[in-house]
Amino acid sequence: MSKNILIIAEQRCDRVQNVTFELIGIAKELAKVNGAEVEVLLMGHNIAGQVSDVVGYGADRVILVDDPCLASYLTEPYAQAATEVIRERTPGVVLVGASSIGRDLAPRVAARLNTGLTADCTKLAMNEDGTLEMTRPAFGGNLFATIVCPDHRPQMSTVRPGVMKKCDFDASRSAEVVHKEIAFAPQKIRLVEEVKVCSVVDSIEDAKILVACGRGVGNPTSIEQAKNLANELGGTYCSSRALVDACVIESCRQVGQTGKTVRPECYVAFGISGAVQHLAGMEDSDYIIAVNKDENASIFNVSDLGIVSDANKVLPLLREEIEKLSRA
Amino acid sequence: MEIIVCLKQVPNTTEIKIDPVTNTLKRDGVESIINPDDKTGLEVALQLKEQFGARVTVLSMGPQQAEKALGEALAMGADHAILLTDRAFAGADTLATSKTIAAAIKGMPYDLIIAGRQAIDGDTAQVGPEIAEHLDLPQISYACEVGYNADTKVFTVKRQFEDGYQILEVEGPCLLTVLSTACKPRYMRVKGLVDLDNKEVQILRRSDLVIEDEVLGLKGSPTKVKQTFNKQYNTNKQKLVLDPAEAAKLIAATLKDKHLI
């Protein structure tokens, strides 16, 4: 049994996903406590070109499984490869991104290894003896629980995308690359069609400025104004669950417990009351501006600039003010 | 076709509030419901039943009061209901839960097992895939459309990702976890409620399962809860009451100050 931390990388659309770099970032922090190494398992087909990305973000060792069986994500071949690599490397900790792929793969692997798995963690802490404290929200973000896995190894956790910080990219880093061959079992599931929307433009997780709308921004005009504002500020727009449920805003723009976690430089919330589920997804933003008619709205508990006013009336005026100042 | 639907009774978490004095969850008076994703799973099963003919069994693990959720499932149109309840099962994490449920399913006939993607109290999405692993079944999670060809006995499933989807084919037996967007669950039927008199929830206890004691309940759970806590927010932050013109000026000035315009 090693004390190392193994990260199962997620690559889609020929790119290693951000959550993998975030996992390397937190793993480097955890590894400082007990002197562990950070290993990254990269699975796919024709992915050798992606090795330098995970190395540049801090991997100490890369285990590469490159096989046509892994060209598209399918549970069984990925689970088989991950399980065999984990059995061979015997890491003390295995981290997986809590994406739809990670949340499909990790429980399958954990059950096969007969170990515990803590879902959707938002905080990880390492003890000197190598035990990991995994903190996650429950009951829709109303409660947090710190979970440990004392007697089973590896300790496994899926980690929420957007929560951990990645290291700065260092192109000069180098790391050992271990090639691993897997004899894949015949597949029971056939892939008939795969449609990928690989657009990374306009992703709310990458935006520096987010203009967020909630239930209080009820009419189409105000929403249009918020979108324009986001555009003018060089950011993009997002929303709380209410407007996604009402089919006014696309679900990929939902911030919160059941949506995405964001931490932009500036988060401007219009007409958002601030349910715990929403706050969980945006409270780590660098600067939060909130406008809401209700002075008791919970959004004000996390805002740096809280303004009690009607968002629908502020929005059109704000555009004029910004024009004035940007000309000045 | 034999379909087993796994469902969980959960507190309606959208109604849960924190007691500001004791700083604990206020569970009193919070309604118990069938977990929304699981209810969609039942609807998928009932639609397959209507189109192709099937016997739908709903299965839950939990305290005795979970009988109510199973009763609602029977009233929606499920044919048979099983509740796994025993003190020996209490305190189980996802691994112990999935082993217990898999042990119960092992003795039953099935072509398809459907579970909801995740429960709204724990949000783990782990028990479904873990059941599939213990039963050595192919799994398709995040299913948003489920079709079936009665001649070839092949299920065609649309699996949703963040950035796209896959169309997958699989022969039974297999396990699907479904998204609540897959379809809208029906209401309980009057006939279903009347028929309830003839339907009973079958209770399975520890002694009905072939499984080792070591893997059950709290003892069989590799993960342990070390502590629970609520997030503390500063409820005394300063707020400015401004008319819209003043508000717009202040926001614009703040953005300028931060070099964002």
CATH architecture heading of the largest domain in chain A: 3-Layer(aba) Sandwich
Low-confidence stretches of chain B: none
Measured between the Cα atoms of the first and last residue of chain B, the distance is 63 Å
Greatest chain-chain contact:
A-B, 89 and 81 residues
Under CATH, the topology of the largest domain in chain A can be stated as Rossmann fold
Please provide the ordered H/E string of secondary-structure elements of chain B.
Answer: EEEEEHEHEHEHEEEEHEEEH
According to CATH, the homologous superfamily of chain B is HUPs
Structural class based on helices, strands and sheet pairing of chain A: alpha/beta
Query: Into how many domains do the coordinates of chain B divide?
Result: 1
Q: How many distinct domains of chain A? A: 2
* Beta-strand share of residues of chain B: 25-35%
> What Rg of chain A do the Cα atoms give?
22 Å
Plain-language structure description:
Chain A is of the alpha/beta class. Chain A has 2 domains: 5-179, 3-Layer(aba) Sandwich (Rossmann fold); 209-327, Rossmann fold, CATH 3.40.50. Chain A has 8 helices and 18 strands. Chain A has helices at 18-34, 51-56, 75-89, 102-113, 220-232, 241-245, 276-282, 311-327, and strands spanning 5-8, 11-12, 15-16, 38-44, 61-66, 93-97, 117-121, 123-126, 132-138, 143-148, 155-159, 176-179, 189-196, 209-213, 236-239, 266-270, 287-292, 305-308. Chain A has a 7-stranded parallel sheet with strand order 7-11-6-1-4-5-12, with helices on both faces. Chain A has a 5-stranded parallel sheet with strand order 15-14-16-17-18. Chain A starts with a strand and ends with a helix. By secondary structure, chain B is an alpha/beta fold. Chain B has a single domain (2-215), classed as Rossmann fold (3-Layer(aba) Sandwich). In chain B, strands 11-10-9-12-8-1-6-7-13 form a 9-stranded mixed sheet, with helices on both faces. A two-stranded antiparallel ribbon of chain B has the order 2-5. A two-stranded antiparallel ribbon of chain B has the order 3-4. The longest helix of chain B has 17 residues, at 36-52. The termini of chain B are far apart. At the A-B interface, helix 4, strand 7, strand 9, strand 10 and strand 13 of A face strand 3, helix 3, helix 4, strand 9 and strand 10 of B.
